[in-house]
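Q: My labmate handed me this sequence with no annotations at all. I'd like to see what the chain might look like in three dimensions before we decide whether it's worth expressing. Could you predict it?
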Amino acid sequence: MKLYKAMQLARGFENACNQQYMQGKIRGFMHLDNGQESIPGLVDYAIKKGDKKLSYYREHTHAIASGVDAGEVMAELFMKDTGSCRGAGGSMHIFDREHYFQGGWALVCEQLPYAAGAAKSILLDRELGVSDDSDYKKQDVAPPADDDRIAMVFVGEGGAQNGRTAELLNAAAKDNLPLLLLVIDNGRAINTFTPDIARNSNVYEQGKHYGVPGLLVDGMDPADVAKGGKAVIDYIREGNGPAILQVHTYRFNGHSPADPEHERGRKDEKAWARQEQDPIKGFEEKYISKGVFTEDELKAARKDVLADVKKVVEFADKSPMPPVELAKELEFPDTPATDYNTREGPSFADEVNARTITPEKMDTIQGHIEALTAKAKAGEISIGDAINLAIHEEMLRDPTTTIHAEDLQAGSSYDIPKLTQQTYGKGRAADEIIDEGHFIGKALGEALNGYRPIVELMNTNFGIYGMAEISSAGNTFATTGGKFDMPMTIIGAGGTAPNQALGAEHSQPFHAYVMGIPGLKIGTAASPEAAYGLTKSMIRDNGPCFLFAPVKMMKEAKGPVDLGTCMPLNKAAVLHEADQSCVDNGNAVTVLTYLHGVKEAQMSIEAIQEEGFDIDLIELRSLKPLDMETIQKSLSRTNKLAILDESTKSGGVGATISAIVSEELFDLLDAPVKRLCMDDAPVPYASSMELAVVKRGSDLVQGVFDLCTKKW
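A: Here is what I predict for the chain of 712 residues:
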């Protein structure tokens, strides 16, 4: 009867959703699960509250079967403040901390690497001897000896053709993750017949290459799904590693009521399905004929469930809308002005370090830190080493800090992750396959589950592979109504130096590409001091942060650092102030730049001064949020602005800043903003051609001259 009620609740809820959608009370995209009720039946039967659950956009019934309050789910669809995500997520983004229901993800298959990270967090809990307290924060209490939690991830058989499936199976097999890949096989990839686009729809067999077993069950028989599914789940709970369960179903509704035109011509097929492929109808016929239940017993159960569904709709309908102010409040978990120096690490750090790092390894890493500290005090530390020093200090300060990178064991290209795996082990310091989207996604899954991952990109342009994951990291805090922080830090070398001879693909302005992603804090560091201080702050921040360092200065630039100090994530740095006489004579210019532009500008100051001019040189250590206060203060002196920009004319950083300055500080300008930016053409390899694309110090000298002599 429990299984039957779970299926009836799923069916009744989705029918109510369809009715409310047609009345206009639910808006946007909505995807219904009618005909696939054996799957929420399995979840209700065999999945525990503490298991991690990650689904895709057709997840209403998965959430409810996981224990999420049906009223909160319906209220979320109604855009109400009482919704599971306060109306910020909607139909495709149901989240609930208490029941570890972690989405609801709208991009097909993006949830797969997140699930790998969620499963990894279970192993990390056991390795470190920590668990969640009542506020879902890590505490120094080991999971119970019989801890058998798993992570499960839902995916359609059409979506499972995505390459992320192979990456997930590889990661799950390599780390022996307690992970269930539940494949919902309804024969449709959106609306297309899956065999028309896939050579092999038997996803349960895809694990053979990785040693991952799979089982195919018939969704028409809910009891068999529950029994077979539980056997697979128990296999995982017993420590055997990952497994695949494929459930063959039939989805009665089309992809979404938002696109009903795709359903034309399927009326006969759907009528047949409702007669022959209905798991609830099959359940009723089977167990009534066997005398297990009477028809009246099942009718009474259905009546009770539908009464509950009616109350769910009434609750959602009467609930208030969220306040308009909530949208801005959900931009960042930590305000831009946060002082990270005052943020204390976990009280259990020493205890966890003592039981997870051997004395020999601790001696080695302390010696490494002492050597880097000596370089820092002498002003001889590089940018790469400064970041490495900050990472080790933070990983020792907070054992929930992890790191992911390719070529991690070898220290990557600039020693950023040097000695991390050798010190903290493969659990906390993971050497990854060469696919940035995969390991950024794994980091996101860890961050959902109380860990604080760092992702090192060997070159930030490789992050193009991870745009979906970076975008979702930026959205998560807001989409979940503030329920889930996203303490993830991405660090890498990038930018475009003059004459760097790396060609177009390694010279893209990825920092400009990600500027438009909401929820990200984006910083740049052109010195060891900035790299060190910003890295420490970003790791302590509870939201997603991205630090760009200059690829051609990683080992070249040397200098001191302010040891132990976190820098603000919302402030620019004034590196040089124009002489007051130049300001008084109108011969001073505010110059905004970052990355390699800092070096180019500093090397140009003498030439600019020889012409009788001077500059306020401001390093944009925070691209987002932008430090308008510092820019305004300088412009009130100089009244002229040049931007030496390491991104393209169209859609670049300089374009954004120029627009903001023109909108907010127009009265301070005596001349048009001078944008010294990359041309829109791809960056050539040959230095002779590259001159036409990448701006440098000589362009800045000319730009200052033009502004001060009114040649614009």
